Amino acid sequence: MTTAASAASAASPIDLTLGGRYPTLLRDVREYWFEGVSAHALAPDSAAIKRWFTRDEDNDRYCRQVNTYLPILHEIGEQHAPQQLQDDSRRLIADPTRRPLDTLSMILLLDQIARNCFRGPESGVVFRVYDGLARDLALRALFPVTYRRWHRPATTAAAGDPPSPLPRREWYDGDHDHDHDHDHPLDISGDDARLDELPLFRYHLGYRMWFYLPLMHSESRTLHAWLAERFQSMRADLDGLQPSGSSTPPRTEQDLQAARGMAAFNAKFAREHRDIIERFGRYPHRNEALGRPSTAEEEHYLKNGGLTFASG
């Protein structure tokens, strides 16, 4: 693609239905991803967990079909320029708080289904393009007040507003210069209207957890700290529940134990990711796909059983 064509493509608004050719896109994503998953269960069953977290060639093949998701991801990727991440994310979903299910679907498309479509040497596009878009949507959904404070144009900032403590690029990821000494935690206690706390998602881990995966895929220590806070909130919500015969459906002690086990599994999975970021400042298993040279310590880690999360 020529420079002029690339610029024109990057400037083109991303249409949620991509020119009207995919009008049922977001509904289709939900129906595919949550097939067989109860809309009322506290936690997904083992069959759903296996389908989501086990690499399966049939699922990958389905996602790559010409009439499913690969062409859509190509169109989004071709139109996206990294410096326009915020604008492109808003074109996909202008206001996540007003479209919670569509926001969930778009996060699934960008953060999960993209991984089905691009494996191995092709996975670099996931890390460079789709992860950033998914992360921006997730951050707007989970930390709306903080997001607005960070991204308010300087000309409209209220008097006395504190300056952003991090470069804006650090909001999305920390893999630009791998110098994470400037990663600072922020006070996020004032955030309200979080999508993961809506009744639709709060006690439905099979939906709620997908808002968190884009942060887990980040290479920013700050976002991993925020992710830990959201998992703590999830656990607190579940700990506050009691068995109930009057709920719909009835909630048993066995249901609660299954949900708490699922929450603990997610938190452990997040800690494993965070430990790698704390140690290396990035995911070494992505280096080859991103064309990044590995350090001697990273090479030793990868050659001696270091976690790669199926290279995602």
Report on this model:
Mean pLDDT is 82; it is low at 1-11 and 154-186. The two termini are 28 Å apart. The chain has helices at residues 3-11, 25-33, 46-53, 57-64, 70-79, 85-92, 100-117, 124-142, 144-151, 168-172, 199-202, 205-208, 213-216, 221-239, 253-280, 287-290, 296-303. The chain has 312 residues and is an all-alpha fold. Helix 4 packs across helix 7, helix 7 (100-117) runs antiparallel to helix 8 and helix 14 packs antiparallel against helix 15.
Short description:
By secondary structure, the chain is mainly α.
Q: Identify the overall geometry.
A: globular
Beta-strand portion reads under 5%
Instruction: Give average pLDDT, whole number.
Output: 82
* First-residue to last-residue Cα separation: 28 Å
What is the H/E order?
A: HHHHHHHHHHHHHHHHH
Tally of alpha and pi helices? 17
Question: Which regions have little confidence, pLDDT < 50, spanning 5+ residues?
Answer: 1-11, 154-186
Radius of gyration, Cα only, in angstroms? Answer: 20 Å
Secondary structure layout plus pairing:
Elements: H1 3-11, H2 25-33, H3 46-53, H4 57-64, H5 70-79, H6 85-92, H7 100-117, H8 124-142, H9 144-151, H10 168-172, H11 199-202, H12 205-208, H13 213-216, H14 221-239, H15 253-280, H16 287-290, H17 296-303
Helix pairs in contact: 2-7, 4-7, 6-8, 7-8, 8-9, 14-15
